[in-house]
Design brief:
five-stranded mixed sheet
Length: 471
């Protein structure tokens, strides 16, 4: 008999098979069920973006010079503000919180909770948010900022950006780093000494839970809107004309907009065959200062310092069936536990069983479970969980929870400095090597994947709980 979310099939497979499966998965750098997902009749693909802004990183725009001190010697780098272009419109300004890792030019970033980054395990993350709110560019009156910091010679934008970045690195990476310019260094010291912990800011836009399930003829949900925007636009599923699925409020009436706290539902026709649908809600707002931004290409983690009015969005999906198991699947990175949390809620009348990484799992009817898939730092993952009727949900990304120095303890390794003739200034087209940047595509740690999967194929049971929500 299968126990709830029990690793039943791992007990009937030998170590050799697990090792072989792990090696294959590592070498091709895809998940165990990637092939199955391709063949499935309806496979939804998702990264672990829970909603918010999605943007492309451009250039290091305003910066000065800094020196990192290490046992291997001193290294001069550029320190300052990056600029990102938001999909759908808008501009973001960010600082780096991942000094030891490279930045990939034109890498795609998405807004993320601190728990999915190195900030989630950093007790000083709240102090970084204080620095952001009390320095440049949030404080753009440089005379006032200089006076508070005791900088008698005044501050340029380059000094302010460099000093702010240096102070952030001291908390984000534990780096022994100084600004080259005396005014910037004085600002960095002031910010570091004055910082107090502030709470993590809420997301610009999320939907919770991001996946629901149920029977046709019922209202599937609720899905709750969490946003700092005045309102969000709600569009029906792309195939609504043929599927008949409507998006409604709790009164059952169709809706095209919602506000913070609104509950929305999927209204599925009673005679609908087993299937699924996905929606995306969208809004225009400023992203809260202190929100983290991560990339699935292992480009260094950023933290938001400023935002124009920008387009933000969030997805939600629904799955339905007349009988049998009806799973709702979602996932989020969990850096505290070093892995990927997969939540499965089963609103059906029989247990939902699936196999992943050589182990089998079962969620009883009417219950929800969350498991953590242990992953190695920098490990690429690509999992597809198959559901009834050929449906599938795919989760892909890279675990990026640590700064390199924290993980290895090695000397800081910074790639070549940016290309301007002088370090410091404002550049429109700068190589992102300024804080360890490179245009080289990052290498996927395939061998690391193999080692992890060989030794830890079984998922970690976290116990029964409701699907997580995110404010």
């Amino acid at each position: 008999m299968l126990s709830s979310f029990s690793a039943w099939s791992a007990r009937r497979r030998g170590p050799a098979r697990l090792a072989a499966a792990a090696l294959v998965s590592g070498l091709v750098a895809v998940g165990v069920f990637a092939g199955a997902g391709t063949a499935a009749a309806d496979t939804q693909q998702t990264t672990q973006s829970q909603g918010g802004a999605t943007a492309t990183i451009g250039a290091l725009k305003t910066f000065g010079a800094a020196v990192i001190h290490d046992t291997g010697g001193d290294e001069q780098v550029s320190a300052g503000l990056f600029e990102m272009s938001v999909d759908g419109g808008g501009t973001l300004q960010t600082y780096c919180v991942d000094l030891h890792n490279p930045t990939q030019r034109d890498a795609k970033y998405h807004e993320a909770a601190w728990s999915g980054t190195s900030l989630g395990t950093n007790s000083d993350a709240g102090k970084i948010r204080w620095i952001l709110q009390n320095s440049y560019p949030q404080v753009n009156d440089l005379a006032t900022l200089a006076a508070k910091a005791g900088v008698k010679g005044g501050l340029t934008e380059q000094d302010a950006a460099a000093g702010t970045q240096v102070a952030i690195w001291r908390y984000s990476d534990g780096a022994d780093v100084d600004a080259v310019d005396p005014q910037a260094e004085r600002l960095a010291d002031y910010l570091q000494k004055s910082a107090v912990a502030l709470p993590e800011p809420g997301a610009s836009l999320t939907l919770s839970p991001s996946a629901v399930s149920g029977r046709p003829g019922e209202l599937l949900g609720p899905v709750t809107v969490h946003t700092n925007a005045d309102g969000v636009a709600v569009a029906p599923p792309a195939d609504a004309a043929t599927s008949g699925v409507r998006i409604v409020g709790k009164d059952g009436k169709p809706i095209t907009s919602a506000v913070n706290g609104s509950q929305i539902f999927f209204d599925v026709p009673e005679d609908a065959p087993a299937g699924s649908a996905e929606i995306t809600v969208q809004a225009s707002t400023t992203v809260p200062v202190g929100r983290a931004f991560t990339s699935e290409t292992r480009s260094q983690t950023q933290i938001l310092a400023g935002s124009s009015e920008s387009t933000v969005s969030a997805p939600a999906s629904a799955t339905w069936s007349q009988t049998g198991a009806i799973p709702a699947l979602s996932a989020v990175k969990n850096c505290t536990k070093g892995g990927l949390d997969i939540t499965a809620a089963n609103t059906g009348d029989v247990a939902f069983t699936f196999e992943l990484m050589g182990a089998g799992y079962s969620i009883p009817a009417g219950e929800s479970r969350t498991v953590t898939i242990p992953l190695r730092e920098d490990q690429a993952y690509d999992f597809t969980i198959k559901g009834p009727g050929g449906l599938g949900k795919r989760f892909a990304g890279v675990l990026d929870c640590q700064t390199q120095g924290t993980e290895s303890g090695d000397a800081t390794q910074i790639l070549s400095a940016p290309s301007p003739a002088t370090v410091g200034g404002t550049a429109d087209d700068t190589n992102l090597a300024a804080t360890g940047g490179s245009s080289t595509t990052p290498l996927i740690a395939a061998i690391a994947i193999a080692f992890v999967l060989i030794g830890g194929a079984a998922l970690v049971f976290l116990g029964k709980k409701n699907a997580p929500t995110q404010d």
